[in-house]
Amino acid sequence: MFKKILSYFYPITIYKETSTISKSIEVTLYNGKMLLNTKNTNYSFGSLQSILKTGLLDIGATEISRMESVLILGVAGGSVVQTLVTDFSFSKNITGVELDEEIIQIANSYFNLDKIPNFKCVIADAEKFVQSDASHYDLIIIDIFKDTEMPEFLFQESYISNCKQLLNKNGYILFNTMRLNKDSKNTIDKYLLHFDSNSYSKKVLKNVERYNDVIIIKRV
Ligand SMILES: C[S@@+](CC[C@H](N)C(=O)[O-])C[C@H]1O[C@@H](n2cnc3c(N)ncnc32)[C@H](O)[C@@H]1O
């Protein structure tokens, strides 16, 4: 309780770990709330959670309520899982894919991720997972970062095409991107070209929580 009060004055580190994949991972108490951070950015809860919630609100609670299955690529602390379950009362299947096993152990210990009954987590590389997964989803949330870096495969034809194969008709892709240089607009424009306008509707929510652009694509 004392730490919680102190956290309104300055962030308090609750746990710090060096992970092979994510390098430095920190659980921090800030303004009475636990966050998961890496060296240079917030990974879960905090602003990251608000960014994905903005995307989900744009898709809309009615659309989300009719969905049967959600795939999350990049899980970390699982804040978007909590948002779906708590804020959108989503009770259908949620599958998460996460490369870093150590971060999932932290998510289970500090954020009770393993207590969410409709969530299952697969430890795998999302790039490979989308190649071999035979399921179909109504919503695919892409939230893959290594600290502030977005791996190149996210913008490559083969990975994009594999994601499209997994998406049901009337399903959505919600892709969180971070704007780090002047090329970002070009990168997003090129990404959108992979989705033919006759089969997909597309929009970009710009400057979400300042540095992020959220791409929302619907298969029509
Ligand atoms: C911003 S965090 C995800 C936050 C999460 N969506 C949430 O709602 O709290 C980005 C995650 O992507 C994971 N990641 C990076 N490369 C990956 C890959 N190739 N496959 C799966 N996960 C990956 C990182 O380990 C990290 O946990």
Q: Give the class-level CATH name.
A: Alpha Beta
The span between the termini is 50 Å
The helix tally amounts to: 8
Sheet of most strands? 7 strands, mixed
Beta strand count: 11
Low-confidence stretches: none
Order of SSEs: HEEEEHHEHEHEHEHEHEE
Strand line-up of the largest beta sheet: 7-6-5-8-9-11-10
Helix content class? 25-40%
* Integer-rounded radius of gyration: 17 Å
How much is the average pLDDT? 94
List its salient traits.
four-stranded antiparallel beta sheet, Rossmann fold, 220 residues, globular, binds S-adenosylmethionine, 32% helix, alpha/beta, 11 strands, 8 helices, seven-stranded mixed beta sheet
3D structure, described in words:
There is one protein chain. This protein is α/β, with parallel strands linked by helices. It has one domain: Rossmann fold. The protein has 8 helices and 11 strands. A 7-stranded mixed β-sheet has the order 7-6-5-8-9-11-10, with helices on both faces. Helix 4 links the parallel strand 5 and strand 6. The longest helix is centred in the N-terminal third of the chain and has 14 residues. The relative contact order is 0.14. The structure holds S-adenosylmethionine.
